[in-house]
Design brief:
Length: 271
């Protein structure tokens, strides 16, 4: 072993190796741990205990972790315990935080910043998603639709990796109101609203329109409102209403929200 010690623990691990942890050495109480591989007859570093100790216990658990408990330290008897995964690939880094837990990657190099260390990454220099771009230019190497050559769309993602999200998008402008018409005598009582599409959809397609009928009293004050939604291809809508005088206004909706209301239409009669 790399460090001579006594009063340590030796624990058989599920993979056939043996973990040696803690104990006393020439420098005093040890916190270091080492793994012995009987197949290759070699020792490798396995990280360190959180607290150096000797005459403690170390028990291998079914999930591969090791429970280290009790023992002595310079300050006296220890009541503490710690659950460790220990590094077993020889790089001295605990498997719980090692970005390459099965292969030694001492410096934890991760060139493409994908969370997998270079030593065990099939594409260490990047383009793991096969989109023709590598980090750092490719800001998400796990998603092929995100890269410097992509077109920005409205989705709360920096699709083109320029450091901005959903740039160039805004709410649509308001539709242009057209002449409304009164309903024909009969049932059901209705009136018809008409409009033109907005001149600017904000960079995102219009998904629907909101048509609002505003009922007026004899003095022209709005006393009630009825709002209905209709498809994005519509440019007019027959709205069922109660008998009375109305004016219409229309709003467009896209992924960023609802536009301002249009101007009011001419006054018509629902009948």
């Amino acid at each position: 072993m790399a460090t001579g010690r006594y009063d340590y623990t030796a624990t058989a691990l599920p993979d056939g190796t043996v973990l040696v942890a803690g104990g006393l050495g020439n420098t005093g109480v040890l916190a270091s741990a080492e793994v012995y591989d009987p197949v290759s007859d070699t020792w490798s570093s396995a990280g360190s205990l959180a607290t150096g100790r000797y005459l403690h216990t170390a028990t291998a658990l079914p999930d591969g972790t090791v429970l280290v408990a009790g023992g002595y330290h310079d300050a006296g008897v220890l009541a503490s315990a710690e659950l460790n995964t220990f590094a077993d690939d020889g790089d001295g880094i605990d498997d719980a935080t090692d970005n390459c837990p099965s292969v030694a990657n001492t410096g934890q190099a991760d060139t493409d910043r994908d969370g997998t260390g270079d030593a065990c990454d099939a594409t260490p220099t990047g383009d793991a998603d096969g989109d023709g771009y590598s980090p750092p230019a490719d800001c998400d190497d796990t998603e092929s639709s995100v890269n410097p050559g992509a077109t920005e769309i409205y989705n709360q993602v920096d699709d083109d990796c320029d450091g901005s999200t959903d740039e160039g998008f805004s709410r649509t402008s308001a539709p242009t109101i057209r002449n409304a018409s009164s309903g024909a005598n009969g049932r059901p009582v209705n009136a018809t609203a008409r409009w033109s599409a907005p001149t600017n959809n904000g960079g995102d397609p219009i998904s629907s329109y909101l048509v609002q009928a505003q009922k007026l009293n004899r003095s022209g004050t709005v006393i009630a409102r009825t709002t209905v939604s209709t498809r994005s291809s519509a440019r007019s809508l027959v709205v069922r209403l109660s008998t009375g005088r109305y004016k219409f206004r229309v709003s467009a909706v896209n992924a960023l929200g609802q536009s301002a209301w249009s101007a009011n239409s001419n006054i018509v009669t629902a009948r």
